[in-house]
Design goal:
Blueprint (H helix, E strand, L loop, with lengths): L6 E4 L6 E5 L8 H5 L2 H5 L4 E5 L16 H16 L4 E6 L1 H12 L4 E7 L15 H10 L6 H9 L10 H11 L2 H15 L20 E6 L10 H7 L3 E6 L6 H4 L1 H13 L4
Parallel strand pairs: 2-3, 2-4, 4-5, 5-6, 6-7
Antiparallel strand pairs: 1-3
Helix pairs in contact: 3-4, 5-6, 6-7
């Protein structure tokens, strides 16, 4: 059986498997989100960076039902194809939401969860909804249609240091986001979060109390997409949760605090297990 999800695999065969799940937004992919992370993780783990449905090499994978559920089930199929019984999950934003839904639906297949400003699990206590970042994301596809300037405005909400949003990055992401396949997938994903019949599947914080996995929540203090107060409910409800906050950091903690994040993540993933 051949899986439909595209992925990049690197690291020593037989070592502990870790799956990386990228964030959303126009032009996102495993390589765009985790291109610098994979070589570091691959020194210690069997590292699998997955293009989620609708993104990168998986842009043609259909989104059926609520996005987190659809992506989690597609991930299960990938793990079955690879013969992996249990994996740790590292998820950024949209990928964090997929990781949580996967752990809730298939608890025996998930190990530790490292979640960076996770979508769906974040519940804003003080900030208004939608946030600045979510507004910029919605504006990208709004009439009269996508533009490079709208993408650049969205990407700049993801970081504390605007120097990280280079012209090269904007051009790369805009090319990937402007294909008919990518635009169709973006519309399908948007519908999956607003469909009245499935809307509640995206409210992962309602189910957070059912998680029995070790969870490390990682947040940037200046996150303008899923603000820091969004961590409070998850921190209270998840039995085995801990929270690490990076100051001077936005939504991309794994990039803005690259070395510190890698040390934190490796320590968490390699820690003693019961």
């Amino acid at each position: 059986m051949t899986t439909t999800l595209h992925f990049h695999r690197s690291g020593p065969a037989g070592h502990h498997p870790v799956v990386l799940l990228h964030g959303g937004g126009p032009g996102a992919s495993a390589s765009s989100n985790f291109g610098r992370t994979v070589p570091v993780f691959a020194k210690r783990f069997d590292t699998i960076a997955v293009d989620q449905p609708g993104y990168g090499g998986s842009s043609g994978v259909p989104i059926t039902g609520q996005y987190f559920t659809s992506s989690a089930d597609a991930l299960l199929g990938l793990l079955d194809d690879l013969g992996l019984d249990r994996v740790d999950l590292v998820g950024n934003s949209l990928g964090g939401g997929t990781a949580v839904r996967f752990a809730l639906r298939h608890p025996d297949r998930a190990g530790r969860l490292l979640l960076m400003g996770p979508g769906g699990l974040s519940l804003n206590v003080f900030h208004a909804d939608p946030t600045e970042g979510v507004k910029r994301l919605a504006a990208f596809g709004a009439p009269p249609g996508p533009t490079r300037d709208k993408l650049a405005a969205f990407l700049r909400t993801l970081v504390f240091d605007p120097a990280l949003i280079t012209d090269e990055l904007i051009d790369e992401r805009f090319r990937a986001a402007s294909t008919p396949e990518a635009l169709q997938a973006m519309r399908a994903m948007g519908r999956s979060f607003t469909d009245p019949e499935r809307y509640e599947e995206g409210l992962l914080w309602r189910d957070a109390h059912r998680l029995r996995h070790e969870v490390l929540l990682v947040w940037g203090r200046e996150d303008r997409v899923n603000p820091l107060d969004g961590a409070l409910v998850a921190l209270k409800l998840i039995r085995r949760a801990r929270l690490h906050v990076f100051g001077g950091c936005g939504h991309w903690a794994h990039l803005e605090k690259f070395d510190e994040f890698n040390r934190l993540a490796i320590d968490f993933l390699e820690g003693d297990r019961p």
